[in-house]
Amino acid sequence: MSTSQSAAPNPSRAPLTVRLASPRGFCAGVDRAIQIVERALEKFGAPVYVRHEIVHNRYVVERLRSMGAVFVTELDQCPDDRPVVFSAHGVPKSVPAAARARELVFLDATCPLVSKVHLDAERHFEAGRQIVLIGHAGHPEVIGTLGQLPPDAITLVETVEDAAAFQPRDPANLAFVTQTTLSVDDTAEIVAVLKSRFPQVVAPHREDICYATTNRQEAVKRIAPGCDLVLVVGSKRSSNSQRLVEVALRGGARQAHLVDSADDIDPAWLTDTRLIGLTAGASAPEVLVDGVLDHFAAAFDLTVEEQGAVRETVTFKLPRLLTDAD
What we know:
Elements: E1 2-6, E2 15-21, H1 28-44, E3 48-51, H2 58-67, E4 69-72, E5 84-86, H3 94-101, E6 106-108, H4 112-126, E7 130-134, H5 140-146, E8 154-157, H6 160-165, E9 174-178, H7 184-197, H8 211-223, E10 229-233, H9 239-250, E11 256-259, E12 275-280, H10 286-297, E13 301-307, H11 320-323
């Protein structure tokens, strides 16, 4: 399905067509995490502390900060008498354990699809399997998953080369899980190496890369061919947004860039540009996409074509602490 819209023709301006990817922007896990902070502020009043950025988006973080959220890097920066929220990316088990020891009121905003990876890893560990985690070192989600189990239980594999070099303790007793925001194509290559080397490796019952990551990458593959430029609205710290840039380039875009907002658009990118693809990472709000379209509408005779057939209907429940009557 494709819908198009345009302003009244303006012959004094150069024509520009924007292919707008759908779906784009917020996923259910991000929406839930933001709601948790907002509801906590309503229930408990400000300040509410948040361990790490609730999601990787500067606009979202600054908006919540203006409402009374205080973002910290570690739990010991939180006072004993205020609630704390754990980010959507998940946390090591030691973090809620420390919160319980201090009798803190805490709310876990971990995306349920990340929690599913944690549970799978625990089941593999209980079954005596060595676990391979496909993901990016240092990403909060990877740190959280590694922190679910003892240090030697999970081996991180980042690349095809890592998968080819990996030496398990017992090749017949192996399982893998993945970060939820990876490139679908890159991950498939790594999994193929693992399955080729270790045919008995146990895979997830359902793919760990989340529906939103997959849908947004597929949407970019649809809009990228023939584009002079693809813009991805999202943070440089956002793994799923970075992957969208890579997918756009592989999909045939002449150039692709990640921007926090319209303010980051380099005029040089627009030289001889007549067809632009536009999408947003799963933690980027639609208001930032609107800002990019307004930026183009001010300078070009703009036509917008929204392209996409996938309708996302997933929702996740909020913690009972926020939904139970006082």
